[in-house]
Amino acid sequence: MSHDPLLTRLTSAFAEVRGVAAVALGGSRARGSGHAASDYDIGLYFKAALPLDTERLLAAAKEIADDPAVTAVTKIGEWGPWIIGGAWLSVGGQKVDLLYRNADAVEAVMESCRAGIITMDYQPGHPHGFCSAIWMGEIAYCQPLHDPQDLIHRLKSIALPYPQPLRDALIRSFQWEILFGIENAELAVARNEQTHIAGCVYRSLACVAQIVFALNERYLINEKGALLEAARLPLTIPHLHEQAEEIWRLIGNGALTPACDILREIDWQLKALMQSRS
């Protein structure tokens, strides 16, 4: 990872906050796919025995934020059990997202994922839902910035190499829902319920992305751009992205049945791909 003065500044600001056991860079910048305007996703890991001191964190954030007067951080748990909490900052004109992670909870979930046990929960900001395997992917792809206890390094040994039981669990959990979503969309065509149809189609396509990622033993950590990335993976469906775009074009034009027909074709292609890998 090349030297980035802003990362140095962020690490220096947050590493000494009471309760911070590790600081990690996540998101597209950690994966090497970011660009100049990409957010800086900063994970702040803490242990249950020594929770994050959010008052001191707020003070540290205000010291570096572009506008201290509007700077705020959440309490632990304020954003739910999966995102937990954090802050949205502007530092040096760059958008910085702080994300809290309880390292003990992360480790327990990762061990379950490695054993092939996953969950899918409602979570604002994740329209398909928050799959527990996201925490595996966050650890696998993150870049530790401050890790004096080798916490991130140890967690990476759970996530890498990609575990076969997790691959099987993701395929088992999401493969059936593709056709289920298609059939529900088709039932709604007669009633012209476009919102419901679009929701069913979206879920089916999100499940397609989950399966393609699993087949490639790659972690899917966010729905944003997932289908386009799935289309570029070594094991994938030909013209997946183009087919998805055509589905949405048809739905936008009210051609609901042809849209569902293309999605059925994608489901068939995915089953053929899975059969070829069995």
Q: How would you briefly describe this protein structure?
A:
The protein is α+β, with helices and mostly antiparallel strands.
Commentary on this structure:
With about 280 residues, this protein is α+β, with helices and mostly antiparallel strands. It has two domains: about 5-160, Beta Polymerase, domain 2, CATH 3.30.460; about 165-275. It has twelve helices and seven strands. The chain has helices at about 5-15, 25-30, 55-65, 80-85, 105-115, 135-140, 150-160, 165-190, 195-215, 225-230, 240-250, 255-275, and strands spanning about 20-25, 40-45, 85-90, 95-100, 120-125, 125-130, 145. The strands form two sheets. A five-stranded mixed beta sheet has the order 3-4-2-1-7, with helices on both faces. The two termini are about 35 Å apart. The model has no long low-confidence stretch (mean pLDDT about 95).
Number of helical segments with 4 or more residues: 12
Distance between the termini: 37 Å
> How would you write the strand order of the largest sheet?
3-4-2-1-7
Q: Tally of extended strands?
A: 7
* Second rung of CATH, namely the architecture of the largest domain: 2-Layer Sandwich
Regions with pLDDT < 50 over 5+ consecutive residues? none
Roughly how many Å is the radius of gyration?
20 Å
Q: Name the helicity range.
A: 40-55%
CATH class identity of the largest domain:
Alpha Beta
Overall pLDDT:
96
In sequence order, what are the helices and strands, one letter per element? HEHEHHEEHEEHEHHHHHH
- Structural class by sheet pairing and helices: alpha+beta
| β-strand amount | 5-15%
Shape: globular
